[in-house]
Description:
Order of helices and strands: HEHHEHHEEHEHEHEEHHEHEEHHHEE
Largest sheet: 7 strands, mixed
Radius of gyration: 24 Å
Helix content: 40-55%
Amino acid sequence: MSDQSLAHHVEDEEYLDVLLREAERTLAEARVWSPREDAEALAAHVLGLPDRSPEPAKERVPAAAANELRALVARRAARIPLGHLTGRARLGGIEVAVTEDVFVPRFPTELLLAWGLSTVRAKRAPVVVDLCTGSGALALAFAHARPDAEVHAVDLDAAALDCARHNAATRAALGDTPVTVHAGDVTDPELLAALDGRVDLVLANPPYVPTGTELLPEWGEHHPRRAIFAGTDGLDVIRAVVERAARLLRQGGGLAIEHGDAQSDVLPALLATTGAFAPGEGHRDQEDRPRATTTYRTADAGQGGGRGAGQGAGQGDGATADPAAEAGLARLRAELDRIDVRLLDTLRTRIECCVRIAEHKREHEVPMMQPHRIGVVQERAARYGAEHGVDQRFLRRLYDLVIEETCRVEDLVIDGESTAPRPVTGDVS
């Protein structure tokens, strides 16, 4: 290549760090909630780096790629969801394809996955049903983490079924246990009747937004409405999920439903009216908002004659369950959940402290860690937890990951006292 050609080639390239700063500024002006992280994700997509963020320092980007990145940033600034721009999303350590016709999996759903994995940790070959599966991400992440599981995914929407089946075929080709995708309506009383009383776990991330609710453009304008809205109280689909779960679950089987603020107070009462479930327990997401309710199937007269009735937790061989043992197991699970919440509350407090420190640094123009990195660490830790289940090992590892990242704000002194977190090792329980 001649000197003139080389000079022309260099002029046709731009520095990645400059492009990222430009993209971050554009997205921040559009009030996108994670401008830097989205800019990095779009750059990684354009540059063909799906599994990691690019290293911006002095990296050159060809003009064509720079133009493509700017075009995608403009569409994200128009509040089109990131997943609809890249065509993919991650959940539980796996990546799935998404289209503009399906719901993009969100980070809070990691809570559902982690709780479900924890619930059936001791169960051999658990039978799992994912209702309102959408892209199939939750069902496929579960099958990835538990290769011995028999997983069924259900949806009514044709576009969602196409997407879920494509993703299921892709994951099976990569070696994961195949997931069975069913076309079905959760309001159908006979849905999956062949599984009555045999299911160990029902997971559901259904539509739950009350009709007429004003949402951010990503959800109110750029997602299919039937994947978002569910009647005046947001419970139209959730009611059906509860009814189907009561029939499908064996005694002691677990139910986890993702929902919004509007359903957090009424869902426990809805579960209670069935007479089929233990008292519901609420779970809060990484933003400390009510996000999921979980419970367990109890014994009742209505289930006594159903298929698989009488099988206790961990029993798949037809043995008769001991009601006292079932009650003891439920109490143990509840205690473990309380321990998990206490530890997660500790993490939440530490994260909030680090955010305050980061905000102080920004105010006083002190070099600082980007606050959005805390969310990145949370996501990585949640993926780890989805693979290994919610237990003490996961929670301690989560703690360590958060500390490793937030220790980058060390050495700031506020009011004469250092408030930066220090590394913590060993048992944090």
